[in-house]
Recover the amino acids of this structure.
């Protein structure tokens, strides 16, 4: 297998993870901000690519490295066409873009697009390249200490998670996320469900698929690659199961979005140790990550009152820390067994025999061992030092960036824009889902036809009954009762109706349900709303027929509302009142 080709294929898989982030973040937020989420993910990769090429890559990977801290910028990508490491650039670029895109989810639905563009440039050009160079440049001070972060639990995910936490804290929560009791001063969190769990699940599975490249691209041989694929499967699978059962136990039902976050938490946690741990280590790391992410999401939301719509801080920040520290607990020495073939000449019974002999030679690739495998606290101490220094660097640099943006009023979108939705105010889109909106210029079946008078179209018959009473009857009931309801109405002579699928609850507000650990204020159930306007058929007859059709004696049978109607005008003929409700020619 040509691992140079696999190296670039792995980089392409990591690039495809941008689609996963976009789908996950869009699904976990409201529909009115979907296009804004997509645009931010496009912008952070595009802007990041340019500035990583201009300065970030050379700061991170330069051979001229000052004091183990920072590379000397150069323009090798522009002036050394024949010798530049193009594969290395693309590989490091897609990882840099991942660190930048994590932040958009934590700050979603209330951040100015301008602010996100500025942040993406700064993290791609300076913040990420400097700390990543400490870890992966051969001259970096953490690399020389023996710090292990194979694919970036700390250097990428922890940095993105901490950046998201700082951004969300400086930015403040979304409107309506928290309320404060006027008497006690207690702050209460309110659930704001995302608009599409389907998109969220799609994003999760795309990310998991891309993670095989994220963790495996740097593998040097087939056994190592197979081992990385194994750990990259077992850890997220265990974490998803752990999150599922924990939310099931806590809230009475398994939480879908938390379980998806659990899988991602397991992926983040295994990113640093993926090449240094065995199957048991991967399972234990995933188990801790799955529990940790649920507790962290609830703590950040309910106790710290930092509004993170997608759980990015817990998934990437908290579990990134855990993944880096897990190396110091579960790492095993890496020994590669190489088959060496040699020609051996022997004399057997007076005859010279020449044969090929294969000898297995053990090559120690890494002697680093974690606490649970006899390595003591040395590696764990190095990992802790790396986590602390990278975290401190991120807090200082990212904190300064967001505080400056806030000072110059570049960070948060105006209240009116947030309420209306950033798709409209930031990008001029009525909605990210245009086909679900009524469009004024949409063609209809009558387009191109010449208008005719009412008498030419259908002769108007005068059935005037000026004293007839008109009533509007609205029926709200369960969806599975609609066919039976329609049959009953047709039987008593009512065929005209307007039917709408709605969400609602009665005075009981439904049983207590939870979304990402926060109790929903009301449990909105799918209902069907049927609206009819009548004059000829008595309202009492309608009510009796409807009650008979819908009655079970249980909560949720439905309700009937009756309103008086002042007038009705039939557009086609101009008839009014009683006449407009009759279908006779």
């Amino acid at each position: 297998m040509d691992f140079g080709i696999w190296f670039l294929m792995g980089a392409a898989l990591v690039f495809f993870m941008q689609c996963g982030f976009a789908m996950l973040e869009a699904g976990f937020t409201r529909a009115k901000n979907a296009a804004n989420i997509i645009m931010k993910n496009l912008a952070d990769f595009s802007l990041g690519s340019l500035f990583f090429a201009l300065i970030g890559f050379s700061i991170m990977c330069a051979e001229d490295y000052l004091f183990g801290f920072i590379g000397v910028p150069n323009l090798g990508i522009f002036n050394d066409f024949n010798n530049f490491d193009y594969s290395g650039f693309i590989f490091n670029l897609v990882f840099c873009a991942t660190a930048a895109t994590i932040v958009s989810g934590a700050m979603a639905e209330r951040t100015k697009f301008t602010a996100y563009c500025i942040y993406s440039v700064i993290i791609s050009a300076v913040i990420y390249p400097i700390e990543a160079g400490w870890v992966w440049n051969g001259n970096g001070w953490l690399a020389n200490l023996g710090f292990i972060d194979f694919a970036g639990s700390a250097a990428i995910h922890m940095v993105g998670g901490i950046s998201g936490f700082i951004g969300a804290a400086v930015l403040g929560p979304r409107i309506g996320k928290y309320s404060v009791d006027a008497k006690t001063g207690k702050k209460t969190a309110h659930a704001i469900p995302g608009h599409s769990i389907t998109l969220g699940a799609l994003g999760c599975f795309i990310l998991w698929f891309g993670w095989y490249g994220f963790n495996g691209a740097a593998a040097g041989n087939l056994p190592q690659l197979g081992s990385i694929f194994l750990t990259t499967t077992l850890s997220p699978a265990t974490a998803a199961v752990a999150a599922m059962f924990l939310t099931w136990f806590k809230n009475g039902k398994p939480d879908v979005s938390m379980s998806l976050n659990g899988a991602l938490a397991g992926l983040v946690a295994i990113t640093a140790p993926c090449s240094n741990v065995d199957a048991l280590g991967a399972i234990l790391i995933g188990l801790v990550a799955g529990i940790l992410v649920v507790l962290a999401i609830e703590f950040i939301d309910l106790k710290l009152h930092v509004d993170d719509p997608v759980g990015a801080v817990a998934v990437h920040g908290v579990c990134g820390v855990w993944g880096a520290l897990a190396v110091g607990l579960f790492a095993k020495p890496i020994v590669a067994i190489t088959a060496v073939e040699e020609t051996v000449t022997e004399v057997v019974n007076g005859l010279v025999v020449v044969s090929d002999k294969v000898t297995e030679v053990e090559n120690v690739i890494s002697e680093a061992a974690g606490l649970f495998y006899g390595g003591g606290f040395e590696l764990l101490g190095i990992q802790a030092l790396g986590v602390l220094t990278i975290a401190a660097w991120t807090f200082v640099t990212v904190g300064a960036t967001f505080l400056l943006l806030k000072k110059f009023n570049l960070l948060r979108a105006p209240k009116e824009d947030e309420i209306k939705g950033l798709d409209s105010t930031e990008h001029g889109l009525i909605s990210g889902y245009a086909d679900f909106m009524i469009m004024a210029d949409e063609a209809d079946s009558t387009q191109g036809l010449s208008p005719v008078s009412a008498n030419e179209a259908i002769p108007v018959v005068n059935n005037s009954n000026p004293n007839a009473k008109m009533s509007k009857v609205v029926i709200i009931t369960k969806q599975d009762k609609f066919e039976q309801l329609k049959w009953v109405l047709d039987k008593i002579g009512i065929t005209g109706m307007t039917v709408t699928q709605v969400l609602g609850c009665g005075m009981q507000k439904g049983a207590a349900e939870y979304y990402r650990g926060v109790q929903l204020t009301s449990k909105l159930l799918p209902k069907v709303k049927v609206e009819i306007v009548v004059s000829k058929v008595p309202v009492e007859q309608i009510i009796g027929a409807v009650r008979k059709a819908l009655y079970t004696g249980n909560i949720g049978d439905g309700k009937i509302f009756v309103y008086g109607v002042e007038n009705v005008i039939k557009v086609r003929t101009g008839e009014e009142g009683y006449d407009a409700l009759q279908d006779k020619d």
About this structure: The first helix runs from residue 3 to 27. Residues 438-447 have pLDDT under 50 and may be disordered. The chain is about 50% helix and 15% strand. The radius of gyration is 32 Å.
